Fold this sequence. Notes:
By secondary structure, the chain is α+β, with helices and mostly antiparallel strands. Helices cover 41% and strands 25% of the residues. The chain folds into three domains: 104-176, Elongation Factor Tu (Ef-tu), domain 3, CATH 2.40.30; 185-341, CATH 3.30.980.10; 378-504, Diaminopimelate Epimerase, Chain A, domain 1 (Roll). The strands form four sheets. It has a six-stranded mixed β-sheet, sandwiched between helices. Strands 1-4-3-2-5 form a five-stranded antiparallel β-sheet. It has a four-stranded antiparallel β-sheet with strand order 6-7-12-11. Strand 13 and strand 14 form a beta hairpin. Helix 10 packs across helix 11. The two termini are 65 Å apart.
Amino acid sequence: MKDLTKKxxxxxxQSSTLVIxxxxxxxxxxxxxxxxxxxxxxPFPVPEKIVTALKNNAHRKEYLPIQxxxxxxxxxxxxxxxxxxxxxxxENIVITxxxxxxxxxxxxxxxxxxxLSSTPFYAEAGGQLGDKGYIQTKTGTFVVEDTxxxxxxxxxxKGYVANGTVFTTEDSSANVDSIYRQGxxxxxxxxxxxxxxxxxxxxxxxxxxxxxVGNDRLRFDFTHIGSMSLEEIKAVENLANTQVRNNHSISTxxxxxxxxxxxxxxxxxxDRYGSEVRMVTIATGEPxxxxxxxxxxxxxxxxxxxxxxxxxxxxxxxxxxxxxxxGETASEYSINDQFTLARxxxxxxxxxxxxxxxxxxxxxENKNLKSxxxxxxxxxxxxxxxxxxxxxxxxxxxxxxxxxxxxxTPQDIKNIADLLRDNIKSGIxxxxxxxxxxxxxxxxxxDDLVEKGAIAVAAIKESSKFLQGGxxxxxxxxxxxxKDISKINEAINMNEEIIIKQLGD
Length: 505
C-alpha cells in the first residue's frame, strides 16, 4: 500500500498557477523584465492597513469559524447591500483563502447525491443507463443527471441543486424525465427484438454477451463466429421491423429463475439473478421473445417505430457488436440516407435504383484508366532511362548519371533508377525531381563503390541541408528532400562531388 501511495503522489501534477508564478520569479531573478498575466497572483502590494492588522494579530492561533469571521461576513453583507443593492445575509456568505477553495466549495454545495426512501427512478443495471429527471422540495429543485445503485436496495440520485436549497428533512416529489425514460425503454425493448432476430437469422448459438442502452442509441454484444454479411444484417433488420409493425404486446411476470427458464426465457447471466426474476414476453399469440430482464420496456412493439442497424463490428474472439438506433432518430437517419443516395445519384447522372450498376461501371472505367496510365508512365520511365543512359559520363572508371527527372511521386524516381541499374556496372545514379512543389533527391551507389568507402546516406544528409530539409537511407541508397526547390540542382551536383571525394580519400 505504501508503494501504491507513493506512485499516486508522483503522478500528481503541479498547479498551473504555481508553475507560471515560479517561472516568472526565476526570470525576474535573472534580471529579465516580465509582464505577468498568470491568474491568481495579484500584482498589487498588500495594503498597509492589512499588513498592520496581520502583525497585531500574529499571536492569535486559534481556528477561525468555518464560514469565516462573523464581523467580516457582516461587513461584506452591508457593503453588498449598499454598493450593489443585493441583500445577502452574513449566514449566506463564506470566506475562503483563495478562488480554488471557493470553486471547490461551490461544487460540493451544489453537486451531490440524494437517497430517497422510495423512488420511481430506474438505477443503471443490465446495460440500461439510469434515469434522469428532478427532485422537487418546497425550498429547492435538485436535477438528477444519473441514477445508480451502489448496493442492492439503495438507489442514489446524482446531480446538482438547480435553484433554492434542498434539505434532507423535507418532503419531496421525484419526477422522472418521461422523454428520456421513453427513449431508454424503446431502445431496451429493441435489444430484445434484435436478440431474437439474430438467433433466428444466424442460429441459436447467438447469445447476449452485454449491452448498453441509452435514450438515443443502443449497443448489443453477442456471440458469433465471423462478421455478418450485408444480406444477414438486412435480414435481421427486416425481421426486427416486422415485429415492430406487428405491434406485439409486452408483458412482465415475476417468477423464479428456474420457472422462467422452464418457460423458455433466455437468461444467460444466471449467477447475477436473485431468487425472483422478472420475465419479459413479447408476443401476440406465439411469443417472439421471452427474456429474464429487470429493465424498463414499452407497452407494445409498435411504440418503437423503427429499428435501424448502423454498425456491426468485431470486439474479440467469437464476439460481435451491433450498434443501432430506433424511433424518430432511426427515421431521421434513414431519411438522411435516402437524401444522400439521391444526391449521389444526381452526381452520377443516374437514379437511385441504378446507382450500384453505375458505380460498377465507373469503377471499371477507373481501373482501365489506371492501367492505361501505368502503361503510359512505364513507357515514359523507359524513355527517360534510355535518354539518361546515353548521357552517362565516366570519371576514373566510375559510371555517373546525374540529372533531374520528370516524376509525380517519389516512387517514380525509384522506378526510373531501377531501369538505370541494368546499364551501370560500377557507378552512381544521382537523380532529382520536383514533386508537389517540393524538392526530392535519390542517390544510388553500386556495392563495389561502397566497399571502397562511398556512403550514399552521408552525401544525402549533407546536400539536403541546402534544400532546408533532411534525408536518410543506407550506404548504397539514400533519399532526401526539403522546402527550397531553387537549390535542387545544387543539391544533386553536391551528391556527386561528395561521393567522388569519398572515393578519392
